[in-house]
């Protein structure tokens, strides 16, 4: 089954990857991907890894871009004076067709049921679901003095994923954490890390699970998470 449908000679929306909070969107034409940056929330934009090599880049709306391609992600930045208020368009030329790239899709966690071991003052305004609502102005928060806590999401059914993004509301509080999946009655770690920060992103071997946790093992103060996203594993088109 062919997932991508960018046609040669046409430039149309087709996300080989997409971001459900509308920070950026993707269009493509032939061997070219156009990154439409709609909302600069920091100095850089992080994109999922691509199975094709980026051979050149340019900014169609004027200015220059710094694009770095690694095995686990792509980062791009544009000087503040070159960013457009509505749509900064960065052109990425690949060494092969963009139509061979399957969409990663939106976050699997958006709007899903969530629970947590601790909620600040038991106030629903800081409930677990606030970390899965794609609203950067809301957050899951814990009581003052909390050093360990977990945040859990139910994906509704077993789903295979291989990338996570976490936005820590107060960068630097989390000092040690695990990402875990439920296996029967046990919780098994599939990724371990130290600090998170505002734009944490990680890729890992594909995991298939329905329930997933961010387990904070050590924090300097009550952990608080603005968004916790998981993305489907990337599969090549047949």
Description:
This protein has 238 residues and is mainly β. The protein folds into 2 domains: 12-100, Immunoglobulin-like (Sandwich), CATH 2.60.40.1180; 114-232, Jelly Rolls. 0% of the residues lie in helices and 47% in strands. It has strands spanning 12-13, 24-29, 32-37, 45-48, 54-59, 66-69, 73-77, 88-94, 114-116, 140-141, 149-168, 174-183, 186-193, 200-219, 224-232. Strand 12 (174-183) and strand 13 (186-193) form a beta hairpin. The model is unreliable at 1-21 (pLDDT under 50).
Amount of beta strand? over 45%
Mean pLDDT: 84
Unreliably modeled segments:
1-21
Can you identify the CATH superfamily of the largest domain?
Galactose-binding domain-like
User: What general outline do the C-alpha atoms trace?
Assistant: globular
Can you give the helix content as a percent range? under 10%
Distance from N terminus to C terminus (CA atoms, Å) equals 6 Å
In N-to-C order, the SSE pattern is EEEEEEEEEEEEEEE
Determine the structural class based on helices, strands and strand pairing: mainly beta
Provide the gyration radius in Å.
19 Å
CATH topology of the largest domain: the name is: Jelly Rolls
Annotated CATH architecture of the largest domain: Sandwich
How many domain units?
A: 2
Question: What is the number of E strands?
Answer: 15
- Largest sheet, strands/sense/barrel: 7 strands, antiparallel
Number of helices: 0
CATH class of the largest domain: Mainly Beta
């Amino acid at each position: 089954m062919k997932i991508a449908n960018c046609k040669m000679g046409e430039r149309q929306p087709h996300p080989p990857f997409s971001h459900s909070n509308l920070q950026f969107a993707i269009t493509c034409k032939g061997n070219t991907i156009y990154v439409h940056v709609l909302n600069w929330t920091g100095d850089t934009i992080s994109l999922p890894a691509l199975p094709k090599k980026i051979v050149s880049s340019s900014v169609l709306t004027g200015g220059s871009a710094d694009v770095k391609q690694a095995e686990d992600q792509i980062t791009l930045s544009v000087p503040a004076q070159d960013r457009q208020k509505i749509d900064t368009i960065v052109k990425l030329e690949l060494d092969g067709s963009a139509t061979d790239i399957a969409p990663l899709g939106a976050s699997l966690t958006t709007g899903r049921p969530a629970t947590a071991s601790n909620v600040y003052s038991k106030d629903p305004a800081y409930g677990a679901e606030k970390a899965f609502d794609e609203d950067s102005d809301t957050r899951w928060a814990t009581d003052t003095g909390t050093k360990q806590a977990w945040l859990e999401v139910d994906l509704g059914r077993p789903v295979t994923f291989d990338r996570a993004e976490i936005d820590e509301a107060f960068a630097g509080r989390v000092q040690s954490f695990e990402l875990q999946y439920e296996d029967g009655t046990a919780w098994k770690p599939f990724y371990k890390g130290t600090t998170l920060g505002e734009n944490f992103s990680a890729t890992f071997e594909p995991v298939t699970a329905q329930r997933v946790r961010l387990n904070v093992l050590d924090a300097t103060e009550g952990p608080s998470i603005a968004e916790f996203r998981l993305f489907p594993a990337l599969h090549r088109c047949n």
